[in-house]
Design goal:
The chain is of the alpha+beta class. The chain is built from 14 helices and 14 strands. The protein has 3 domains: 81 residues, no CATH class; 105 residues, no CATH class; 114 residues. The strands form 4 sheets. The protein has a 5-stranded mixed sheet with strand order 10-11-12-13-14, with helices on both faces. The protein has a 4-stranded antiparallel sheet with strand order 4-5-6-7, with no helix packed on it. The chain has a 3-stranded antiparallel sheet with strand order 1-9-2. Strand 11 and strand 12 form a beta hairpin. The protein is globular, with a radius of gyration of 21 Å.
């Protein structure tokens, strides 16, 4: 009722959906619930509920990016879950107190080792361990009979959905790329459960025991450090393959990459926000960290490129997709893209 009341407030009098229409609309795209004259750029295709009737991963990320302390959100999802930006800043500030070399090394660890055994992680993290990593045993929504499954792309524990004889296992960040599986929880008790691929990018994944020694980076660290770090490292490797000079996270992450190729230089800041509108508004409110800063968004958001460019027009940013930056680098090196 609280959510329907909020929705009714943006509709003309008498035009708001009924409760039945509202409940049915939760299964479809957000644009069908909102009035036609409302600007829904960047969120029109959002689905609030996933196929299992749970609050969708994308919607949760959007709440964290927009930081809307609405009464309905506070009632149904604790404010801590929608305050991801504050937590992200806290983690970054903690890392920025480190010397540059140590900072870059630990940022790389978050990308390359999002899960690991406590004894191994302690060799690298020591006192910082508890600030970034959490025990997987405390995440029941990411286990099947005490086993978890790392995503084949980002290696973070995948989410388990459903309670029937067959459950869905998927990576919330990469399900659109086809990282999804089916699993039968009722397999033999002494054997690890097996995944059956259901998506096009669902390569083989072996179950890992979620023991008290099994740790993974927190969701906020994964969402705002590990995921963009994957794209940052991908761009680094592409540039190095063109014999460019690359510095990662210079000045303790003032931006993400400094790439030099001949007389040309690119200062790059990678952004993997769920909402292109929230990203554009955040950039517009903050001057670029360097002259001619290039903001790079993932290729799957290429349809939103115009919107982000429009929002930051005149602010000193240049916005490209990852593929567009790779092409610029290849052209400068005289190589095919």
């Amino acid at each position: 009722m609280s959510c329907l009341g909020v929705l009714s407030a943006v509709h003309p009098v008498g035009k708001a959906p009924t409760m039945a229409g509202f409940r049915e609309g939760l299964k479809g795209h957000l644009r069908h619930l909102l009035p036609n004259d409302l600007d829904v750029s960047g969120i029109a295709e959002l689905k609030l509920l996933d196929q299992d009737g749970s609050f969708s991963d994308e919607a949760e990320d959007l709440c964290g990016e927009f930081l809307v302390p609405a009464a309905a959100l506070e009632e149904h999802w604790p404010w801590q879950r929608v305050a991801a930006e504050q937590e992200e800043r806290r983690l970054f500030e903690m890392l920025r107190r480190l010397p540059q070399g140590e900072y870059a090394r630990l940022r790389a660890e978050l990308v390359e080792r999002p899960t690991g055994d406590l004894r191994v992680l302690r060799r690298t993290w020591d006192s910082l361990l508890s600030r970034f990593y959490e025990p997987i045993a405390q995440w029941p929504g990411r286990q099947v009979r005490g086993w978890f499954f790392p995503c084949p792309l980002c290696r973070w524990p995948m989410r388990v959905l459903g309670t029937g004889p067959v459950v869905t296992v998927r990576c919330e960040a990469h399900v659109r790329r086809g990282v999804s599986y089916a699993c039968r929880p009722t397999a033999r008790e002494n054997e690890p459960p097996l995944l059956r691929p259901t998506g096009k990018a669902a390569t083989r994944v072996d179950a890992q025991p979620a023991t008290s020694e099994s740790f993974a980076v927190s969701r906020v660290a994964w969402r705002y450090m590990t995921l963009p770090g994957l794209l940052e490292c991908e761009l680094r490797d592409h540039a190095l393959g063109l014999r460019a000079d690359v510095v990662m996270w210079p000045h303790r992450d003032l931006y993400d990459l400094a790439i030099k190729l001949g007389e040309n230089e690119w200062l790059v800041d990678v952004k993997t926000w769920a909402s292109p509108r929230a990203l554009g508004e955040a950039l517009r409110a903050c001057p670029p960290a360097a002259s001619k800063l290039v903001v790079v968004i993932p290729d799957h958001q290429r349809k939103d490129l115009h919107l982000v460019r429009q929002l930051v027009d005149g602010c000193g940013y240049r916005v490209l997709t990852a593929q567009q930056l790779k092409k610029e680098l290849a052209d400068a090196a005289g190589r095919p893209a």
